[in-house]
Amino acid sequence: MPPEGEQAHFRALEGLYAHAPINRFFESSLRIEREGVATIRFTLDERHFHAAGAAHGTSYFKMLDDAAFYACNSLVSDRFLLTTAFNLLFTKPLGAGPVVAEGRWVSGRRRVLVGEARLVDGEGEEVARGTGTFMRSRIPLAGLPGYVPA
Q1: Which residues belong to any copy of the Thioesterase domain (predicted)?
Q2: What CATH number should be reported for the domain holding residue 78?
């Protein structure tokens, strides 16, 4: 039986994530189990490193922003959200291997939503944290490639 209601929205957001061209550069997958929570599993390798041999900050930002964004967009079923600000805290360098980005909605439901995310390395240690604000856009989710509710 195909998913309905919020589960259909969650699966459609997962399809939207998978369809985004930027994700061709990252081995990753999104899962939304419940409203306001998103988990993205990444695998980093040397392609994501800076000159000193660890993950570049752009990789941290991508993982944290995506997790917080999708946690927030899980509460909005008609419009695509846009990141308007994002703050990062790096606590440990990341090397090659698996990383989990855990995002969660914090507050707001009308025009601006606030979300946070953390990165956890393969040993289960938190290596970064971020908080973002996301604004409803005029872009309907239903018109975006990959967003296909069942």
Answers
A1: 53-128
A2: 3.10.129.10
Give the whole-angstrom CA distance, residue 28 versus residue 40: 7
- Could you tell me how far CA 101 lies from the centroid of its own chain? 7
Strands 97-107 and 37-44: antiparallel
Which segments of the chain does DSSP mark as H helices, in order? 5-19, 57-73
Percent of the chain beyond pLDDT 70? Answer: 98
DSSP 8-state symbol, 123: T
Is 37 inside any structural domain?
A: yes
Domain around 43: 5-141
The answer to whether position 111 is within a domain reads yes
Residue 149 lies in a domain: no
Q: Please give the pLDDT value at position 4.
A: 81
User: What is the Cα–Cα distance from 116 to 132, expressed in whole angstroms?
Assistant: 6
Residue 122 has pLDDT above 80, yes or no: yes
Q: How many domains does the chain have?
A: 1
- Whether 118 is in a domain gets the answer yes
* Helices 57-73, 5-19: inter-axial angle, 10-degree rounding: 160
Find the largest Cα–Cα distance for the chain: 50
Give the global pTM.
Answer: 0.95
Cα 118 to the center of its chain, rounded Å:
10
